[in-house]
Amino acid sequence: MNLELIFENTLSEIEKIQSIPAPTFQEMNRSDYMFAEFRKRGLESVEKDSIGNVLGFLTGGREKPIVISAHLDTVHDQYTKYGLSKILSRWEGAGVGDNTTSLAVLLSLIDYFLNEKDHLKGGIWFVANVGEEGLGNLIGMKMVVDHFQDQVYAYVVLEGIGLGIIYHRALGVKRYQLSVMTHGGHAWGEYGKKSAISELVIRINRLLKMEIPKFPKSSLNIGTISGGGSINSIAKRAYCQFEFRSSDENVLNRMEVRIKNLLLEEKCQDVSIELDLIGDRPFGFISEDHPLVKCAVSSLNKIGIEPVLAIGSTDASYPLSKGYPSICVCITSGGDVHTENEYIDIDNIPKGFLQVKNIIEHIWD
Asked: What whole-number distance in Å separates Cα of residue 279 and Cα of residue 282?
């Protein structure tokens, strides 16, 4: 199939897919679109499972099949402006890189390998999955991997931005919600009573003052804050959601103990504290010498890109945590990820496509 035509079709699909809002847990419309496209292209066994993952199969040779996946969801809500701004090769818009571009390339890979399936040593399961972002907690990929387990040769995950990076190690992430409850009251008549917001701020300050290890690299982020009822009421309830990460499992566990001590150790009269785990992304890895990693490295070398082996939190994290061969690779360059000004360089998309094509063609070697 003509690669120039594939590129044109990929750009067309980016425009279509990016215009369909797909917040985590609300991916239905985008899921429906990918389901229709899988069927239109003639994949076998096309289905949408109980949580919205879309799967379709392309028959190949006698080797175990592989899974190629891209997540459907974005960090943006339904009310975000999803239009694209185009300035030369720079396309800008909410979710255009993460993960619209990968979904478009997934469709282009189907188009290409439908014409090359006689040369495939094994079949391909194409997957558009839900729940990668935020509190999705990898729910989509978990269902896919728990279904296939070790009956596939490898899991190859596509992300939009970061061409040249090969994620073969999974970064551990813990996510918590800290809730503070007080009696509340009238801002004037009951002035002096404890405010849930004030008590929450005290505890957030404790988190922010905590020393975060620089090596191994670790992080802590307060992601959301909410609470209170009105400007003239003493807040009865307030909460925040935060996450912390580390490239070292022991360090992450020590951070978790320290955080629990900071937030729960002190008992305060008239204040109730709850700390709930709301997300837990696992560790896992395959070595740099693993055939799958070597295949990805070779695929980048063939198109003149220097590979960067890295650790990250992606859909590849779950199969890696189960001991299954998995990597995450990226399609193009870009920036401002997770903002409404996210952008991609469309000129690099053909290289990203060729990278994945090369991986698929040589993964069974």
From this structure: 10
